[in-house]
Amino acid sequence: MLFRQLFDPATSTWTYLLADTDAREAVLIDPVREQAERDATILEELGLRLVSTLETHVHADHVTGAWVLKQKLGSAIAYPATSGVNGADRLLDEGDVVRFGRYALEVRLTPGHTDGCATYVLDDQTKAFTGDALLIHGSGRTDFQQGDARRLYRSVRDQIFSLPDETELYPGHDYKGRTVTTVAEEKRFNPRLGMGNTEDQFVAIMAKLDLAYPRFIDRALPANLNLGREAGDVDVQPAERDLFATLPRSPSGVLHAPPAWVAENCGRFRLVDVRETYEWNGDLGHIEGAELVPLGTLGQEAAKWDPAAPVVLVCRSSGRSDRAAHALERAGFTRVASMVGGMLAWRREDRREACL
Ligand SMILES: N[C@@H](CCC(=O)N[C@@H](CS)C(=O)NCC(=O)O)C(=O)O
Ligand SMILES: [Fe+2]
Q1: Looking at domain 2-225, does it have CATH number 2.40.30.40?
Q2: What is the distance in A from the centroid of ligand 2 to the CA of 313?
Q3: What does the pLDDT read at residue 141?
Q4: Does the C-beta of 219 come closer than 6 Å to ligand 1?
Q5: Confidence (pTM)
């Protein structure tokens, strides 16, 4: 599994990128709006499709990048069901599972910092993303957003400390440059929630914190309740988003473009037919506007093309075009799809569109 820990220095926020590099599916936990461009670039460079963003809670200190990333990449927006937000694509409840390729995150609700907090646990329990329920040797504050120290104590004890001692815990923030901790370390050394402290002791500690009001709360709360969409933001129509972002991956990891999608979006990509000349001129014919580049010569030809420009590959039944798509991705092309079913499907659907 690919795993990247990303930082927003202005708010000391951690964002986590997790991906299956075979299926090329990724999720981002707690993206930051000001870092959306950085995150999109990393995803593009690694050839990953962002399936979903996940929020651990409605943040008070920064605006989520969820809405901006959805506009750019077509990713779904997931929030805890208890968070009270409007319009999320998915509301996550206790025990729900968010899949990316062959991996998955399990949802554990951990209210207390806010009443709508969740912790995301990787399916093999080697990692858990605690948001602000548990910080490294600390905890999220409980003095606003329906915060409740007693609930937080029970959430951490029941839902996080019940994980194996070796489970790595990744927090929503760290203000001292630390990156990761484990269940065992927090049980021993967390001065608020560990060290044998009772619920009453924790409540007393939290009541005395007297923290300053977060700097950006007045901007962050309304924006985050609205998925990170702010005044003046305009929703982009799906057709104007990156065209390839919404295509599904085949089991072998190639983007699959249905013939109807190809017909609808003609002119927005280079259409390359990788069959042999006799097939191009044969019974199935070819799509007007496609270029003939037999598979054996594709490497040589493609070296002359811009690897950032989108390409759709076609053959008879999509066996060769799938292989060609893999080859182009290995050669650094970032937007490559194979027309699923090939010319057989195109003819079966009786398509006559030119692709110019
Ligand atoms: N100084 C920061 C404080 C941010 C803050 O209050 N963070 C929350 C998480 S959203 C928290 O629980 N902090 C715990 C702590 O500072 O111990 C700001 O103004 O943004
Ligand atoms: Fe928070």
Answers
A1: no
A2: 46
A3: 97
A4: no
A5: 0.76
